């Protein structure tokens, strides 16, 4: 089929902090050198911010560089961190406050801001648009397009108006080719095009597999007398055991709201573990529930993070394109902060592109200069210092590993002359269900803890119902024939949106059901399925969660 | 002939509505806003009429704050030729809206004005009818089919008894029901083109319209939470349970 196409200098996939910082920096540099530049950003969410979910405590390093007078420009960084509590939870109702000097250094937050990253992205998008960037929310980058020589030539937007059986509805609109000299992939953690590019261009040769966590987040409106704007609370320990990494956060934002969430590392081994239920029961610890009682939960969502750090960063360039932000994996796992590094690597990509443009045609070229830029930037320094944090937790468990992390970070400042590796991918860590004990999760009380469906409801998720399922099974028999007997089909538990169910069909046989319209685009199934049999692809543009100020 | 289409910025239909803690309304800050879905259908119908050669110009009109221009851009990207933004930061009641449209109709002299049958925020379903009354034009509401024929429009409406077809003289006011059409997806190049299409901004006083204040909202509350159900095993138990609740004697 002959498709319509549009040509740009740079096409950016994803309007997150990485993609939007790329766009802003490109326009700034183009204006400085009086160059005309056609840049577009394509975003699958129905609007910018609709698919952005972060904590978030933002380190202002990158934004200080990108817009030094962001304050005067009205950037929504309104709440400075005023207090920093770290608890080690020892049980359902107990926890001890960790004295400040015992907290590993990367977890300190002076000078940072509590923000809604979705709102920060909306603001960045306004800046980009005012400099002439075309932003297209509600459109997906469904496929990468390649030239005959194998280089990337752009992306294809997803078809709209395709029915579940693949036929074209009346409203059918074929996808369009967006062609670019360079395409910047900024899809965030486990980008589906990024994943394919890494395989195609062998970008992961000689690096550790990426490691992930699943973050489940809620926003609550709480009683004003319990609210302490600027207070940051982190917890370690309960409800997770010493072999499962993860922890909780609770940030007092503006307007009597708190953002709270729980991250479970996806290298957990017990297939009966349910990240959703861990998050729910975590809230019932008095150190957390003290703030929530009498309040109202107003939003829910989930998103994976990649926390492999330095050892897992792939090669960033390939002919015709670059990887930035969490699509590559620049999150600092010791801090669980990736917004500042996402922004900075986006800016580095922009600088790489503009410098290359000065020397000639950049179409189909591989801009390897980004590698040097990254290695000489503070992003590299930061990831290098904390490179042993994750592997230590993995090697020694959270208690001993945590102690190492403290020594490594506070005494040796990350300069110990060795680097540990964690080479087992997260999908390969599950033990057989029969060898593991199922945790006994309490029933939701409807006040502090809730069930999955009422939670997903608060994510305002919607997908056009009549469309092909965007969760593809390579082999449809795997869930029932392999995963169910061996691992009790863990998708039923790890999916934070209740998309996967094992039900009985009319004959009473087990059947794997996918409720794709509930999907909040967290990407966990694509990561954790033990058979790597589930592939997340883009649904029709605009589908998915509609997050407000996540 | 010219067609005017009224469009409104409303909280997106996917968003879970939250009532403000002080009961003065619903939360719209930081909430996804969209073009009212019925208005999208109205725009689509106007565009189809134009594409069939029976109209020359489609004008999208909205009343509201600056941010409403986003919805006008959507209408322009779908294919409207130009847009008028009646800018105001106040909440507008249906009668004021109808008066504003009357003033614009006096100026633009359209042959057809199409609205969505109601806005999904306050579900008033009044502006179209009031405009017809103020202008002494015929009205055909809840349209599921519109056929334009020189100086008349034949409009099919969904009524309780089935389908009713009216013939109205133009100019007329039509309001669009869900099944009138399926709005098109917007194309990327058209979004870019829409940025260059003109939006005229006018104020209510420019139009010489008197603001109506006949309706006062006393309080907004969330619907009562559903109580958890109980399972009964037998009819006897059901009767006992209903008696206990005082629902039967
Ligand atoms: C629970 C949680 C808490 C966190 N807390 C913090 C914190 O306190 N501080 C901090 O600094 N970081 C935190 N992070 C990490 C931070 O959110 C990420 O590092 C950051 O979002 C990465 O930015 P990005 O631009 O690379 O990707 P993203 O923010 O994921 O943005 C990617 C964008 O691209 C879009 N997209 C993806 N694929 C496509 C496609 N194919 N077509 C079109 N659009 C596409 C997505 O919809 C999305 O809008 C947290 C993360 C989580 C999950
Ligand atoms: S289906 Fe996959 S991507 Fe979607 S919410 Fe569930 S785990 Fe996340």
Account of the protein in words:
- The complex is a heterodimer of chains A (550) and B (249).
- Chain A is of the alpha+beta class.
- The relative contact order of chain A is 0.16.
- Chain A has 15 helices and 24 strands.
- The radius of gyration of chain B is 22 Å and the shape is globular.
- Chain B has six helices and eleven strands.
- Chain B has helices spanning 37-51, 69-78, 94-108, 127-135, 188-194, 235-244, and strands at 2-6, 9-11, 33-35, 57-64, 82-87, 112-116, 139-149, 152-159, 162-169, 172-176, 199-203.
- Chain B is α/β, with parallel strands linked by helices.
- The mean pLDDT of chain B is 93.
- In chain B, α2 packs across α5 (188-194).
- Classes of the chains: A alpha+beta (550), B alpha/beta (249).
- The structure holds flavin-adenine dinucleotide and iron/sulfur cluster (SF4).
- Iron/sulfur cluster binds at residues 471, 495-497, 499, 519-525, 536 of chain A.
């Amino acid at each position: 089929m002959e498709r319509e196409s549009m040509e740009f200098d740079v096409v950016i996939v994803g309007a997150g902090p990485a993609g939007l910082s790329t766009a802003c920096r490109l326009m700034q540099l183009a204006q400085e050198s009086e160059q005309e530049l056609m840049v577009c950003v394509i975003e699958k969410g129905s609007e910018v911010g609709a698919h952005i979910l972060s904590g978030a405590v933002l380190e202002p390093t990158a934004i200080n560089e990108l817009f030094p007078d962001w304050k005067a420009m009205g950037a929504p960084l309104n709440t400075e961190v005023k207090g920093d509590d770290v608890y080690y939870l020892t049980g359902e109702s107990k926890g001890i406050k960790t004295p400040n000097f015992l907290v590993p250094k990367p977890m300190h937050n002076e000078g940072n801001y509590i923000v809604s990253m979705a709102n920060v992205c909306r603001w960045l998008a306004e800046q980009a648009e005012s400099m002439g960037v075309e932003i297209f929310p509600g459109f997906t980058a469904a496929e990468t397009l390649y030239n005959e020589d194998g280089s990337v030539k752009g992306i294809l937007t997803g078809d709209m108006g395709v029915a579940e059986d693949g036929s074209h509805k009346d409203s059918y609109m074929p996808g369009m080719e967006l062609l670019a000299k360079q395409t910047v992939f900024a899809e965030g953690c486990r980008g589906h095009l990024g994943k394919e590019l890494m395989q195609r261009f062998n970008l992961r040769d000689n690096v550790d597999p990426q490691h992930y966590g699943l973050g489940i987040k809620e926003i609550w409106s709480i009683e004003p007398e319990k609210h302490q704007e600027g207070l940051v609370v982190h917890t370690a320990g309960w409800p997770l055991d010493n072999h499962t990494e993860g922890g909780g956060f609770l940030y007092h934002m503006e307007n009597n709201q708190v953002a709270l969430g729980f991250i479970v590392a996806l290298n957990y081994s017990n297939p009966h573990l349910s990240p959703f239920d861990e998050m729910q029961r975590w809230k019932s610890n008095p150190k957390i529930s003290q703030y929530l009682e009498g309040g109202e939960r107003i939003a829910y969502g989930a998103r994976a993070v990649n926390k492999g750090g330095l050892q897992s960063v792939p090669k960033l360039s390939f002919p015709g394109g670059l990887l930035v932000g969490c699509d590559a994996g620049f999150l600092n796992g010791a801090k669980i902060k990736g917004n500042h590094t996402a922004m900075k690597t986006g800016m580095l990509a922009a600088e790489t592109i503009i410098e290359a443009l000065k020397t000639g045609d950049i179409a189909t070229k591989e801009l390897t200069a980004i590698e040097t830029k990254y290695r000489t930037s503070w992003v590299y320094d930061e990831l290098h210092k904390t490179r042993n944090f994750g592997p230590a937790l993995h090697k020694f468990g959270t208690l001993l590993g945590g102690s190492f992390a403290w020594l490594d970070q506070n005494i040796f400042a990350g300069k110990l002359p060795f680097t540990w590796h964690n080479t087992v991918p997260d999908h390969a860590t599950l033990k057989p269900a029969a060898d593991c004990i199922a945790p006994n999760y309490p029933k939701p009380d409807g006040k502090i803890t809730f069930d999955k469906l009422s939670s997903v409801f608060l994510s305002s998720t919607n997908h056009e119902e009549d469309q092909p399922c965007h969760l593809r099974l390579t082999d449809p028999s795997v869930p029932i024939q392999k995963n169910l007997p061996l691992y009790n089909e863990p998708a039923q538990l790890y999916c934070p949106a209740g998309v996967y169910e094992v039900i009985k069909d009319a004959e009473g046989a087990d059947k794997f059901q996918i409720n794709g319209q509930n999907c909040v685009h967290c990407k966990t199934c694509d990561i954790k399925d033990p058979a790597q049999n589930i592939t997340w692809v883009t649904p029709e543009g605009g589908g998915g969660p509609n997050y407000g100020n996540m | 002939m010219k067609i005017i289409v009224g469009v409104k910025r409303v909280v997106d239909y996917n968003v879970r509505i939250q009532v403000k803690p002080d009961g003065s309304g619903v939360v719209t800050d930081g909430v996804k806003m969209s073009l009212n879905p019925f208005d999208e259908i109205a725009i689509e119908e106007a565009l189809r009429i134009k594409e069939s050669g029976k109209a020359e110009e489609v004008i999208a009109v909205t009343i509201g704050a600056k941010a409403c221009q986003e919805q006008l851009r959507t209408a322009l990207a779908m294919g409207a030729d130009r847009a008028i933004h009646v800018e105001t930061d106040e909440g507008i009641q249906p009668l004021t809206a109808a008066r504003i449209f009357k003033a614009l109709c006096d100026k633009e002299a359209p042959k057809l004005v199409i609205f969505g049958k109601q806005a999904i925020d306050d579900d008033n379903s009044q502006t179209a009818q009031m405009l017809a009354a103020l202008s002494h034009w015929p009205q055909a509401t809840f349209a599921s089919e519109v056929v334009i024929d020189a100086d008349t429009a034949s409009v099919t409406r969904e009524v309780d008894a089935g389908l009713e077809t009216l013939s109205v003289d133009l100019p007329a006011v039509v309001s669009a029901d869900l099944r009138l059409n399926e709005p098109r997806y917007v194309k990327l190049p058209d979004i870019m083109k829409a940025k260059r299409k003109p939006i005229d901004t006018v104020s209510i006083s420019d139009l010489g319209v008197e603001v109506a204040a006949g309706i006062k909202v006393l309080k907004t509350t969330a619907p009562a939470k559903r109580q958890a159900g109980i399972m009964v095993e037998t009819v006897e138990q059901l009767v006992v349970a209903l008696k206990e609740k005082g629902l039967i004697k």
